[in-house]
Amino acid sequence: MEAACLDTGGHHTLAAYAFCKGRERKRIWAIKGGSGKRPIWPKRPSKANKGKVNLFTVGVDAAKEAIYARLKKSDAGAGAMHFPLDRDAQYFEQLTAERIRTRYVKGFPQRFWWKPDGRRNEALDCRVYAYAALHGLLSMGLNLNKRVEVLPPTPVNRKPASNATPVTVPMTASPRRRRMAISSNYV
Description:
By secondary structure, this protein is an alpha/beta fold. It has 6 helices and 5 strands; from the N terminus they run E-H-E-E-H-H-E-E-H-H-H. The protein folds into 2 domains: 139 residues, no CATH class; 44 residues, no CATH class. Helices cover 33% and strands 16% of the residues. Helix 2 packs across helix 4. It holds the Pfam family GpA_nuclease.
């Protein structure tokens, strides 16, 4: 695990602050969601909270827009979302539970994310916070291109087995796991 974001909103805010405070060097960050025109990851955290912890306000609107744009890509590869094979239909219903709506305030349009009553959206929240953690790592200087350079070359002339299902392995997986997943797709 490279990093994690822990949502400090809700009923146990102080416990969440206490949990994160001792783990900031391990890149377990206390966050809260912020709507409106905010960057996905702030330039610096706030310490103006009861726990005196570094608190990062994540731009959830920007993150959701980026996620939904990536979900629209139909081809695998750069910029597309890749999912483990064990995800079921309920996961994708949660991932796509929210919609953009527009309301008018004093005659000016304001866009906002709307979730129908009764719909669950935990998968989207988790994806937003994972995406925020990635942006936190990028702000610390993580270079994904260097990570790709350690991957073994993908076989070019070999065709996948007819019964093989493509597997996408997260960049945070160990190089050995990535090699195993890539080679398991070929006979």
